[in-house]
UniProtKB/TrEMBL annotation, chain A:
InterPro entries: EboA_dom (IPR047715). NCBIfam families: EboA_domain. This is Sugar phosphate isomerase.
UniProtKB/TrEMBL annotation, chain B:
PANTHER family: HYDROLASE TATD. Gene3D superfamilies: Metal-dependent hydrolases. This is TatD related DNase. Transmembrane segments: none annotated. Keywords: Hydrolase, Metal-binding. SUPFAM superfamilies: Metallo-dependent hydrolases (SSF51556). Belongs to the metallo-dependent hydrolases superfamily. It comes from Alienimonas californiensis. InterPro entries: Metal_Hydrolase (IPR032466), TatD-like (IPR001130), UCP005295 (IPR012022). It comes from the Bacteria. The keyword Lipid metabolism does not apply.
Length: 206, 302
């Protein structure tokens, strides 16, 4: 998977002041300053604004979310444990939009094997926007989830009233077990006199 | 449109959210506080702070209510020095976050030395991150506790225009206003202010720097206190300008000083926020009358 260049996509959206702030903060973070990462992560919206990024490679991203991830990408990766600890601290204390940034960015981050567990944790949320940051327009699950995890994600999308169409790899990752679960879900809805979501019917019909 | 600038949403139900949204409450501020029983470790505080900026913000958004919060160590729990120290160490992790509009609610309960120590440390934090402060005034020995709180704030040179002193009554309001602070009143059955007494305060003192809130929490309290008091003020002939000031504008002006809260958040939410933090739009259109009666649920669960 080639990682698209986020700093390049972000640059045209930054005022001179915002760019100067981000450069200075990035430099501190690149030197391994965890506190600068945490502060920069929180302060990003008030420093660079919240405009839409409008970039096909980063669907649904905003400028502040991109700035947050540029800072995270700057944090040194030589020490895997230290990097993952910093990521976990950010997730643990994250507000809603920070959580969304941390999960949207999964395909752009190091140690994907380790992050797969964290992504699965993220999917246990009840916050639709956080769930969709992982499940929608995000290639990470397709490449790093085993079938059990993948199947739970697809089923939960339906269950919380989220569309399955934006799930990357939806048809490629179809498997027997998932088909059984999806048919079971459709039967359960019909038995309860509830409607079956249109995109589930599409999926079941191949 | 109303703002309830002090309400403990984590203790309230979705019925309450439906009711306040229908009554025209567009934004709420949830200060960190005591949960009704003491917490035994700082981890409980960490998860509580995370909930205020996380799930509760989302829960409010589902009803078209914009949710902001204040982070702080409340006075009751400041009396356990070891725990207090750990909680104060956690706070910098949260104070710089989006949607945190003040340090609060902080102040005195027993008026102990430990409470004063925690208050002073948190005033310094508010100075460091340039946030307003929400002050909880003690329920016992209130008048002296309120005076003492303002003395401590002035000791640190904290500007009164960035402080909301909450839970005022007829005995405290004059000094609070005279010393340049925002004076908030909590409409709370039996222990704090009543709606009728509130109207009398507005009739006597006007509406400048006066703020009305519900502080609805886990006790017998009313999340509709702000719209109900607005209705009573209207019935008693208080001007629309004074009603708007005390139930919307003043709270926005005071907490808007954080840079984390503006009318655009609910009148013209950004696309990124509409996708995550603001589902639907509770702003009353076309002269629709706010409803403050209880919403009746259907008898049949679908």
């Amino acid at each position: 998977m080639t990682v698209p260049d986020l700093p390049a996509a972000l640059a045209p959206h930054l005022s001179a002041d915002a760019a100067a702030w981000l450069d200075a903060q990035q430099e501190k973070v690149a030197a391994g300053d965890e506190r600068a990462l945490f502060l920069g992560f929180g302060l990003a919206p008030r420093k660079v604004g919240k405009a839409e990024l409008n970039d096909a490679r980063f669907p649904g991203w905003s400028v502040d979310q991109a700035a947050r991830i540029v800072l995270l990408q700057a944090f040194p990766t030589e020490d895997e444990h230290r990097w993952l600890t910093a990521y976990d601290k950010l997730v643990d204390a994250a507000e809603v939009r920070e959580q969304i940034a941390l999960y949207r960015a999964l395909p752009l981050l190091p140690f994907p094997h380790e992050l797969a567990d964290r992504a699965a944790d993220g999917l246990r949320t009840n916050v639709k926007g956080v769930f969709e940051a992982i499940a929608h327009d995000n290639p990470f699950p397709q490449h790093h989830f085993n079938d059990a995890r993948w199947n739970q994600m697809v089923l939960k999308a339906l269950f919380i009233g989220s569309s399955v169409q934006p799930i990357v790899g939806l048809r490629e990752r179809m498997n027997r077990d998932l088909a059984v679960m999806l048919h079971g879900y459709a039967d359960e809805r019909r038995a309860a006199g509830r409607d079956v979501p249109a995109d589930l019917i599409d999926l079941l019909n191949g | 449109m109303y703002i309830d600038p002090h309400v403990h949403c984590v203790s309230r139900t979705t019925d309450d959210y439906e009711a306040i949204a229908a009554a025209g409450v567009v934004a709420v501020i949830e200060p960190a506080f005591w949960l009704g029983q003491p917490r035994t470790n700082s981890g409980s505080f960490k998860d509580y702070f995370s909930m205020l900026v996380g799930f509760e913000r989302f829960r409010a958004a589902q009803f078209g209510v914009r949710h902001y919060c204040c982070i702080g160590l409340n006075s009751k729990e400041a009396n356990k020095p070891e725990l207090a120290e750990e909680v104060l160490d956690l706070m910098p992790l949260y104070l710089a976050k989006e949607g945190v509009v003040a340090v609060g609610e902080i102040g005195f309960d027993d008026q102990s030395a430990a409470e004063e120590d925690a208050l002073r440390k948190q005033i310094e934090m508010a100075q460091e991150v340039d946030l307003p402060i929400m002050i909880h005034t003690p329920h016992r020995d209130k008048k002296r506790g309120t005076t003492r709180t303002m003395d401590v704030l002035e000791d640190h040179g904290f500007p009164p225009e960035k402080v909301v002193i909450d839970h005022n009554n007829e005995e405290t309001v004059r000094e609070v206003l005279d010393r340049g602070y925002w004076a908030a009143f909590t409409i709370y059955p039996h222990t704090k202010m009543g709606s009728a007494r509130m109207c009398a305060v507005v009739e006597q003192y006007g509406s400048e720097r006066i703020i009305i809130d519900s502080a609805a929490d886990w006790g017998v309290s009313d999340p509709l206190a702000v719209p109900k008091t607005a209705r009573l003020m209207k019935e008693r002939g208080i001007s629309d300008a004074a009603i708007t000031a005390t139930t919307y504008e003043n709270a926005l002006a005071a907490y808007g000083q954080s840079g984390q809260m503006s009318a655009d958040d609910w009148l013209n939410p950004l696309p990124i926020d509409q996708r995550t933090l603001f589902e639907g739009n509770s702003v009353l259109r076309g002269g629709q009358e706010p409803r403050i009666e209880k919403i009746t649920k259907p008898d049949v669960v679908e």
